[in-house]
Amino acid sequence: MKILVVEDEVELADLIVQSLTKEYFVVEAVNDFYSALDKINNYLYDCILLDIGLPGGSGIEVLEYLRDNAKSENVIIISAKDSLEDKIMGLNLGADDYLTKPFHLAELNARVKAVLRRKELDGKQRLEFGDVSMDLEERKVYVDAYALELNRKEFDILRYFLFNKNRLVSKMSLAEHVWGDNIDQADNLDFVYYQIKNLRKKLKAVDAGIEIESVYGTGYRVKEL
């Protein structure tokens, strides 16, 4: 899962990035209004942590931009402002939660996970497709009752596929969600192919009822056999 942190306090932004990275999220951070718009225009995120007070603009304007451009990213406002008016305005513009500074990083992590579960999984902790079940909290994958051993990137790739089951996923979109935005500067994406190759072998070895199909020149699709 990929998260964008929009926070002008650089030290706080760094702490948030470190904390969420330990929870196995892919995290990007920007510190001003225009950098936030640039990221939102060019990349997709599962969740945006958004400060209200930003150099060059405001978090409220970012929310308005997301709404006006039909962007569906989950948004948690993180702000030093604790007024009821600000909270109502943010929630009315489409924010999913509002957390007032100062806050504990553990609470922020919990809020992020809760928003993602609520919006993407209807509150569930598991992704299921065919005979494959993924426990997102424990980061475990089962094929029927068999525990499938995956490395971190294999797990993240499979998670992205299961969130997009039966949909065509471009190689670049997959790479950005698993490795981060700067991956678009890589000379090639061969490393994506090798991770998927290993994941396919592991799924096939346990006769999993799903497969990762290559779509020539475009990307991949996960489907049931």
From TrEMBL:
Residues 2-116 form the Response regulatory domain. GO terms for molecular function: phosphorelay response regulator activity; transcription cis-regulatory region binding. Pfam families: Response_reg (PF00072), Trans_reg_C (PF00486). Keywords: DNA-binding, Phosphoprotein, Transcription, Transcription regulation, Two-component regulatory system. Residues 124-224 bind DNA. GO terms for biological process: regulation of DNA-templated transcription. InterPro entries: CheY-like_superfamily, OmpR/PhoB-type_DNA-bd, Sig_transdc_resp-reg_receiver, WalR-like, WH-like_DNA-bd_sf. It comes from the Bacteria. GO terms for cellular component: cytosol; protein-DNA complex. Transmembrane segments: none annotated. Residues 124-224 form the OmpR/PhoB-type domain. The modification 4-aspartylphosphate is found at residue 51. This is Response regulator transcription factor. The lineage of its organism: Bacteria, Pseudomonadati, Bacteroidota, Sphingobacteriia, Sphingobacteriales.
